[in-house]
Amino acid sequence: MRLLIRLLCAFFAISSVVFLSACGGGGTAPTASSSAPQATFNQIPVTVEQFNPNNPYPNRPYVTVTVCDGAGNCQSIDHVLLDTGSTGLRLMPGVLDLQLPAQDNPTGGVAAECAQFGAGYFWGAQRLATIRMAGDVATDISITVAGDASIPAVAPTGCTATGPNVLTLPTEFKGILGIGQQQRDCGSFCAQSADGQLYFSCTGGASGSCTPSTMPLNQQTANPVSMFATDNNGTVLSFPAAAQPQATLTGTLTFGIGTQADNQISGQQVYRPVTDNVFWPSLGANIGGVASFAFLDSGTNAYLIAQTGTPPVPSSPPYLQAISGLAVCGQPGGPFCPSVPANVQVRLNGLTGDPSSMQNITLADPTMAFQQNQAVIPNLGFQNNFITSYAILGLPFFYGRSVMTAIDGMPTPYGMGPYWAF
Question: Which InterPro entries match (predicted)?
Fold first, then answer.
């Protein structure tokens, strides 16, 4: 069966410009890790800005990740998309200059992965790398490298049948850093079965072939944070408030929850997922008076909310039916363009017994902000035609908040992960 990991992108057209797309390339020369002192802190900056002026794209959070080989040669890669809705580091073609060892497949051949996103698939080879961020280090973990000559450039049919190749979409980042709630990107399912066609064994190099395979848990694409020696139970993503569209915004990503003075829970409420789904853990939600589910995802650049009458309409509840008074610009799936900013109440709850809270979000017409190529659009929302049983609370939800993402199976002072806290 085909497993949907997450909704990365939605598409809409404004003046023939396609937004909410994907991916970018570029690289820097490798440098020796011994040439600079190692950081001793657990925090890195996160910048929301326009990376490619020829393809403006709002609400993209970028970080810099240092990738090292076994000999201590390292390369810092900037403009990596920070994604709390997926798991693992994935690099675009042409970004990596280092020669990293291949992750062997247990059934023979070179291991490759077909990661499934809402916009399509991400095809790449599995490589072993050491990841450094601030003073934290994840040693010899599996990452995915696109454009690797050790595997065919064209993905196998079982992969391509799931949608378009994400690598062919407009380029907007050099990689994706998935720091979601899972330690591994597939878990026990892929360790026991190849039916999901997520992992493949490839032989014959660039002109060879690939067949679906299982992948042991400890060889799957890993959440780098969960592989740190310390500060490994989750993250805190913090941004200042942004009331109006603007050119840039800088926040922080702090590693660990309750492990140091800068990552303690202070006034945040803990929400445990109500759905036990390795690919899409969710909260209960009531948006505009209609019950559904909600997913927090910094890798989605807007609020995605379903409305009545937009295909496909689910045949049974729970699902979002309507947010009254919100006009949609252009074609279905386009941005909400209310004549005046619309305040929407969102009630979120975790597992039974956990407290709920009311969160207020504002949706506004983004037309002027698009025309000005603003990188930060805090009131950006879209009609969700992709998965209408869910609301996606994308990066705008993180503005003005400190959102904790606790990793599944990792202990914290506030209980075992997974959970969110904000």
Answer: DUF3443
Cβ contacts of 288 within 8 Å, gap of 6 or more: 322, 323, 324, 344, 345
Using the 8-state DSSP alphabet, how is residue 376 labeled? B
Q: Are strands 303-305 and 381-383 parallel, antiparallel or unpaired?
A: parallel
Amino acid (one-letter) located at 395: L
Q: In which residue are the tokens 């493949």 written?
A: 200
Which architecture characterizes domain 257-421 according to CATH?
Answer: Beta Barrel (2.40)
Strands (E), 193-289: 199-203, 209-212, 234-238, 249-255, 270-271, 283-287
3-state secondary structure of 82: strand
**Sign of the C-alpha dihedral computed for residues 23, 28, 29 and 35 taken in this order:** negative
Report yes or no: 323 and 344 within 8 Å, Cβ to Cβ. Answer: yes
Tell me how long the chain is.
422
Tens-binned pLDDT, residue by residue, of the chain (422 aa): 223 333 333 333 332 222 232 322 333 333 333 333 334 489 999 999 999 877 888 999 999 999 999 999 999 999 999 999 999 999 999 999 999 999 988 888 999 999 987 778 999 999 999 999 999 999 999 999 999 999 999 999 989 887 888 888 777 899 999 999 999 999 999 999 999 899 999 999 999 999 999 999 999 999 999 999 999 999 999 999 999 999 999 999 999 999 999 999 888 899 999 876 556 788 888 877 767 788 899 999 999 987 643 333 333 333 334 465 577 887 777 899 888 888 888 889 888 777 888 898 999 999 999 999 999 999 999 988 777 778 899 999 999 999 999 999 999 999 999 999 99
d(CA 316, CA 306): 14
Q: What Å distances lie between residue 316 and 4, 35, 276, 319, 389, CA to CA?
A: 20, 60, 20, 7, 10
Cα torsion angle, 146, 148, 153, 157, sign: negative
Q: Tell me if 287 sits within 8 A of 384, measured CB to CB.
A: no
- Give the three-state DSSP class for 211: strand
Q: Cα separation of 44 and 272, whole Å?
A: 26
Q: CA-to-CA distance for 159 and 161, rounded, in angstroms?
A: 5
Query: Based on the number of CB atoms within 10 Å of its own CB, is 15 exposed (0-12), middle (13-18) or buried (19 or more)?
Result: exposed
For residue 7, which of 187, 193, 166, 154 has the smallest C-alpha distance? 166
